[in-house]
Amino acid sequence: MAKYVIGYVTRPMLKALADSHLNPQLVYTHPAGGFNLIITLGIYIGVVLASPVVLYQIWLFVAPALYKHERSAITGFLFSTVFLFLAGIAFGYFVTLPYMLGFLVRFQVVSLPGVVPMITITEYFDLTLIVLLGLGLVFELPVLVFFLSLFGIVTPKFLWKNIRYAILVIAVVAAIITPTPDATTMLIFMAPMVALYFVGIVVSAVVTRKRERRLAAEAVEAR
């Protein structure tokens, strides 16, 4: 199974090299480099495959102590968290990685004529892991807004009022995490973050409205 995963993950890099008329291959420079990669990848695959079972066991332990509406809320939370994380990884693999790798290879071919890249598979996997996990975590922004709104820390009015500062912070974060110096790649990182911020405003509005209704109902019952 590991060889199929390796082939799938390396596809964007090999395509970027082939598109620039370079030899589409990755290398390893340590005698045990390939073996270590397979072991590390096996651990990652094991964690991913085991995580649903672990979450299900935790759910079986916690569920009996929850009310029906609480179980529904946590189920929705878990589903949203997993879905957004996978959506971030998919966006990174199908959109960010191909463009970023293509730009890096083309830029260096033009800037360094006669110099041939020798990219190690371990370094490539490290870069891919950072990009995919980073975008997976970035896509959890609506979940973060959900919790902050649930405890009354932020409101949709606050988020909308400070949208210009949020976009500034998003631009700074995108500039820091973008591994290439071009503005287009930075915008590719910024676009989903800005979109998720607007999704967070909607989520905050729904949560805040429900929270205010619950507090009003509790105040009436307390009289």
Given the structure, what is the number of helices? 8
Using DSSP, what is the number of strands? 0
From the alpha-carbon coordinates, what is the Rg to the nearest angstrom? 22 Å
**Binned strand content:** under 5%
Order of helices and strands: HHHHHHHH
Q: Could you describe the largest sheet, including whether it forms a barrel?
A: none
Q: Mean pLDDT, as a whole number?
A: 83
Percentage of residues in helical conformation: over 70%
Which stretches are poorly predicted, pLDDT < 50 over at least 5 residues?
A: none
Distance between the termini: 64 Å
Which structural category do the helix and sheet elements fall into? Answer: mainly alpha
Give the overall shape. Answer: flat
